[in-house]
Amino acid sequence: MQRITEIWTDDSRCDERGMGAVLNVHFQSGDGIIISLDSKVDAPLFRDVLNGKCRNSPQTDGERVYWENGASLSVKEMLAMLESGINDGGGNVEKQMGGIEK
């Protein structure tokens, strides 16, 4: 499994509900993905992330991205979002990946 080395959020295009926030995730291989968090708007723990209460405080243990309120995304979940193209309803996932393995 690929390990996460760096994460950050970009909320420069967010509306008042937090729609438009993206998560930038970089892996030890140098590959990276940018994932919209819009698909999580109805998940209770992600409401605090999206409305700005803890959006800019993501952390990683190398296997998942998590926030102080308990919201989290595993590498497996992020890769599934990437593969399915179902991310923000419009398939808005960017990838800069070579050999990421599940």
Can you tell me about this structure?
The chain has 102 residues and is α+β, with helices and mostly antiparallel strands. It has one domain (4-96). It contains 2 helices and 7 strands. The chain has helices spanning 44-50, 75-84; strands at residues 4-10, 22-27, 32-36, 59-60, 64-66, 72-74, 93-96. The model is unreliable at 87-102 (pLDDT under 50).
How far is the N terminus from the C terminus? 6 Å
The chain-level mean pLDDT equals 78
Radius of gyration: 13 Å
Number of domains: 1
Strands across the major sheet, in which order? 1-2-3-7
The DSSP helix count reads 2
Shape: globular
Share of residues in helices = 10-25%
Beta percentage is 25-35%
| Uncertain parts | 87-102
Topology as a string of helices (H) and strands (E):
EEEHEEEHE
Largest beta-sheet details = 4 strands, antiparallel
Coarse structural class = alpha+beta
Strands, total number: 7
Task: Give me the secondary-structure topology.
Elements: E1 4-10, E2 22-27, E3 32-36, H1 44-50, E4 59-60, E5 64-66, E6 72-74, H2 75-84, E7 93-96
Antiparallel strand pairs: 1-2, 2-3, 3-7, 4-5, 5-6
